[in-house]
Each structure stands twice: as structure tokens, then as C-alpha cells.
Amino acid sequence: MIRPPLSNPGATLRQMWSEGIVVMPGAFSALTAAAAHKQGAKAVYLSGGAITNNLLGVPDIALITLNEMATVAAQACQAAPVPMVCDADTGFGEAWNVARAVIELERAGLAGIHLEDQVMPKRCGHLDGKDLVSSAQMVEKIEAAVAAKRNPDFLIIARTDARGVEGFESAAARAQAYVAAGADAIFPEGLTSEEEFAQFRAAVPGVPLLANMTEFGKTPLIPAARFQELGYQMVIFPVTALRVMLKAVEEFYGDLLRTGTQAEWMDRMRTRRELYETLDYDQYLGPVSW
After folding, report:
1. Which of the residues 97, 156, 234, 251 has an alpha carbon 20 to 30 A from that of 144?
2. pLDDT per residue over 137-176, tens digit each?
3. Active-site residue flag, 151
């Protein structure tokens, strides 16, 4: 149901991870954020890749604009009363662009964002052929992000893609530099084993860590409970729901165009009543009340 965003989602998220790992399903719209919440999600991740795919129908190569991302984030934060972390890619430019991105995305109602140390145009973190900005350039972006946030609880999460470009030791060294610059948490992208996740935790002690449990990439499937054992505070599943949805939608379109009817799909779709329950339709029939 539409409502004002949480008053301090960053503080809420920080409290949540103090009690155990926070599992964050990936959403890409207000409706999918609401659906995740209805299924019991306590926090949500807004994937830049999934939002780009869904909104523009193009690959995740930095074609989405800050205004487009902020709009989706604001809509999602109004639809689901849970803390959300949003992908801010490379900050949509250099340090001043990063500062504006923080202003706009914090205003949307998010708990925080993550910034990555790739050059523009960026690539998916689990693809080869990436290039990185220097550690000093990324530090400048992080410092700009920290200076621009109004609420100290708003999370600036620094993502490093160095593991697949410069090696594990560089990834750890960059992470340490990003923490020194003021990053609230670190997102090590493209780690290839449980052992590397454990080694990264040991190399970057004392700071919250976010794990990316994407599928079909360089990271094996690792359950959230195992990430907690490895010392991680958050785990995201960024594009999983989009992939599930797209497979179902494409199969339905193909079947509809072959048969001319949806009859065989009636038990594979949400009913009108079930859709209305996700949308809290009945609550819109009375006065505004939260």
C-alpha cells in the first residue's frame, strides 16, 4: 500500500544486521518490492541491472539515468515499508555527480546505496573485460558521497570489482582504502569460493560486508546461513526474480501465440483477488490511513 517512506531506514537496516544476516531479495519495480514484502522480506535490494533490463529493455551498461533510478527507488520505497539498498552503479559520473546521486537517492527514501569502482560504461560484475578507476579516484567518490548524505545512518556501501581485474589482494587493499574514506560497508564483487569470502572477511575486519548471491556468475551458490557463518551482514539476490519472471512470461507468450488461449495457464497465474491482496486494494476504498 502506498505510504510515506520509512523515517530512518538506514538505522533500521543497521539494527537488523546486528541481529543476524539480512536477506535482501532483488526487486526492480514498486510491485516487485511490494510482493517481496508481502512474502516476508524484511529488506529489499533494488538492482541496477534488473531495473535497467525491466525499464529500458537494454543491458546493464550504464544507460539508465539518475532520474530514472531515483524514480523507481521512490516508488518502491512508497510501496513496501522495508529498508531498501539501491545500486548506484559508478555514481552516474565523477565526484559531483556522486554527490547529486546521494542527494536524490536519499530523498527517495532508501536505506543506502552502493557505488562501484569500475570505469564508465560499467559491465556486469560477473563478466570479464572490466576496467577500474584508480583507488584514489574511488576514494574521492566515496568522500563526496559521505559529505552529501544528510542522515548519518544512510549507508554508503563501496563495491570493488578488483578481484576479477587486479586480483584478490588488490580487492582487499582497495576495500581498506574505501573504509578509511568513510564507506559504511563493503561489497566485494566476483569472489569465486567460500574460501575467498572467508579470506576477504579476515582481510577487512570490523566493517559490515555485503555478499552478492547472483546465479550463473563467478560465485557458487551459497546459502544465506553460510554467509552469516562467514561473517557477512547482508546478502543480495539481485536479478533472480527478474530471471524467474522473464522465463515464465516468455513461455506464456509463446503458448498464447501458439494456441490463442490462456486456458492452460489459469492455475499458473495470480487470481484477481490475489493480485488485489498484494496491492492492498481494499484499503484504498476507505479514508487515507496508515
Report:
1. 234
2. 999 999 999 999 999 999 999 999 999 999 999 999 999 9
3. no
Peptide bond into 5 cis (omega under 30): no
Question: What is the rounded distance in angstroms from the CA atom of residue 109 to the CA atom of residue 105?
Answer: 7
Whole-angstrom Cα distance, residue 223 to residue 41? 16
Catalytic position from the list 14, 53, 89, 178: 89
CB 6 within 8 A of CB 77: yes
Structural domains present in the chain: 9-242 (3.20.20.60), 248-285 (no CATH)
Instruction: Give catalytic status of residue 87 as yes or no.
Output: yes
Among 77, 124, 178, 201, the active-site one is 124
Q: Which amino acid is at 6?
A: L
Strands 112-116 and 155-160: parallel
Which cell numbers hold the place of 266?
A: 489459469
- Residue 255 annotated to the active site: no
Provide the 10 A C-beta neighbour count for residue 275. Answer: 13
